[in-house]
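From the methods appendix. Each design record in this collection lists the tokenized structure first, followed by the designed amino acid sequence. Records were kept in a plain field format so they could be parsed without special tools. The example shown here is representative of the layout used throughout.

RECORD:
FOLD TOKENS (343 positions):
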């Protein structure tokens, strides 16, 4: 909130950072101004840049085109995101991001559900988002990796801190080949309980929907579900045995209007997606880069030709030619509403 106030007042981060004491006092007051000036005196941008390069950490700010638009639209978007992993491999503005979260102590039933849904959704081209906690989160990440898909782990600490330590192997797997580790907290920032609540809004904000597997009546997964609902995202939950202590969260959400799911098809139906394996289809025919991007866009949601033209910044005439070719190749089809979707 202070960041937003500063930007609104000064117009840019640079002008706010270089403002005089007198200018800052009008916005921050005396106490915060003094703290900020002390910080500014001891902070070295050059040293911070060297540290980030050594740790192979990149970052995106709200001013960057690579900053996820889905997060810009929430009420309290992160000032910036620190990233471990190859961000060029996982475009945060493309693809179907979907959250799978739940308790740290899942039952065998919960483990099976988390693994099954993450595997099947990954095979369909979804990018699985979770918090890399033990239990459901870790199972969802691992299943996505094993299915050959991508996954994004949102941490409640700095991206250079492996938490929990038992997930060191998973952490490295995600960085090396299967996705991104992201956090709004600076490198070196240690684990604090309240920060996990804050990171949950990023998990839901980044995703189109959230599947809550299992959790108790005070589960952190319910916080993620609440954020998702407030952000206008879809909330899904599988029914759980009422004899299980871990049934409280999903069953409560279903009572409150979450979509009950018993199969991946229930999720696909909500987004008007067909259970076609988009990866297999993409690999079965030869496509240009532009054609591949169009296929990925309509795999996320059915789109009008004009909407595809806007998203790709290509003239409508060229888009229509591409769409005709993709129809001939059997990859896309036109709905009765004039929208294009995966065939």
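DESIGN:
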């Amino acid at each position: 909130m202070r960041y937003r106030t500063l930007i609104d007042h000064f117009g840019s981060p640079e002008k706010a950072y270089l403002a005089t004491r007198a200018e800052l006092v009008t916005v921050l007051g005396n106490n915060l101004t003094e703290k900020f000036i002390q910080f500014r005196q001891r902070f070295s941008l050059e040293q911070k840049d060297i540290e980030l390069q050594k740790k192979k950490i990149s970052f995106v700010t709200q001013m960057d085109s690579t900053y996820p638009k889905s997060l810009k639209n929430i009420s309290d978007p992160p000032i910036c995101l620190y990233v471990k992993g190859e961000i060029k491999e996982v475009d945060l503005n493309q693809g179907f991001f979907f959250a799978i979260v739940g308790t740290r102590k899942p039952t065998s039933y919960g483990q099976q559900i988390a693994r099954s849904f993450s595997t099947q959704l990954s095979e369909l081209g979804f990018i699985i988002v979770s918090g890399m906690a033990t239990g459901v989160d870790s199972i969802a990440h691992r299943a996505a990796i094993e299915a050959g898909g991508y996954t994004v782990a949102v941490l409640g600490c700095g991206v250079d801190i492996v938490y929990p330590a038992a997930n060191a192997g998973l952490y490295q797997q995600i960085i090396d080949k299967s996705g991104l580790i992201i956090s709004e907290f600076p490198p070196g920032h240690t684990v604090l309980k309240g920060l996990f609540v804050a990171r949950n809004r990023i998990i839901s904000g980044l995703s189109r929907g959230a599947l809550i597997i299992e959790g108790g009546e005070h589960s952190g997964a319910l916080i993620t579900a609440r954020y998702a609902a407030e952000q206008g995202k879809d909330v899904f939950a599988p029914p759980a045995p009422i004899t299980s202590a871990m049934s409280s969260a999903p069953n409560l959400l279903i009572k409150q209007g979450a979509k009950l799911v018993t199969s991946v098809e229930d999720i696909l139906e909500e987004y008007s997606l067909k259970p076609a394996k988009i990866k297999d289809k993409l690999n079965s025919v030869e496509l240009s880069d532009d054609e591949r991007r169009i296929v990925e866009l309509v795999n996320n949601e059915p789109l009008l030709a004009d909407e595809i033209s806007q998203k790709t910044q290509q003239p409508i005439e060229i888009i229509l030619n591409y769409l005709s070719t993709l129809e001939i190749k059997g990859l896309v089809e036109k709905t009765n509403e004039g929208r294009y979707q995966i065939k």
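APPENDIX NOTE: Residues 21-42 form the longest helix (22 residues).
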